[in-house]
Amino acid sequence: MVGVFDSGYGGLTILDEFLKLLPQYDYLYLGDNARAPYGTRSFNTVYRYTKACVRYLYEQGCQLVILACNTASAKALRTIQQRDIPGWDPRFRVLGVIRPMAEAVAGCTKTGHVGVLGTQGTVLSDSYPIEIHKLWPDLKVTQVACPMWVPLVENGEYDSPGADYFVQKYLEELLNRDPAIDTVVLGCTHYPLLMHKIVKYLPAGVRVLSQGEIVSQRLQDYLQRHGDLERRLSRGGTCRYVTTDDVDAFARHAQHFMGRPVTAACWSGEGLS
Ligand code: DGL
User: How far is ligand 1, taken at its centre, from the CA of residue 38, in Å?
Assistant: First the structure.
């Protein structure tokens, strides 16, 4: 199976695109809703939670896990890849969502000025500027943390008038800091749910990159280049959902993300507190 992990519901925006582009594989989605949001947690806490969740997906039979969470990609991916996987199973793979976005930005900006919106954890980690500058040293990257956006989405408030206030606030902050920005990366998998409001408050001509499509195309490329891994993935076209919190609440919220009914099982998250 392909495991898809997020702190909560946001990773469903990535999973949805995987199901459109690569429907042949079997997917197992894990949302650590009991501990979401991750965005304000320390490096060590995000690493500990993410590692336990990745381990769970591995034990369920996933050969590949996508951290469909920028915060986990920023704070836990490298350590899991370097420190943990070699001891578990060197053939097992874990990939994140930041590198694919860094690869994509240069093809989108004309001014060379890029904005990144993310959780506090993602922004403070500087993962986006670091990854972008490794590939495109001349791009100017400005980041703004949007700590209210994940709670708005997790609580189903993304359509409410209250959400407009916080969407406008963070976008204004970004463009005040660099008015030449013409490309904005939504560096959190929850943010596509706010897309209609984000577009409303951005000047015409500013392009918004959301991760689902970009990450799914990069995954397709990756699997074409890694035939040994690709051949180990099962092809039943199924998708299962697991949450560490209440299954009914998960099903209710997940339906908004997926646009269809979803049923979930519960994993209590042993070893996590
Ligand atoms: N959706 C996640 C991300 O992409 C996590 C948000 C959070 O848990 O704070 O960063």
Answer: 6
From the CA of 5, how far away is ligand 1's center (Å)? 10
Domains defined for the chain, CATH in brackets: 2-96+213-266 (3.40.50.1860), 99-211 (3.40.50.1860)
Task: Identify whether the C-beta of residue 32 lies closer than 8 Å to the C-beta of residue 53.
Answer: yes
Question: pLDDT tens for residues 200-248?
Answer: 999 999 999 989 999 999 999 999 999 999 999 999 999 999 999 999 9
Which pTM does this prediction carry? Answer: 0.94
Query: What percentage of the chain carries pLDDT values higher than 90?
Result: 94
Pocket flag, ligand 1, residue 10 (CB < 6 Å)? yes
Does the CB atom of residue 71 touch ligand 1 within 6 A? yes
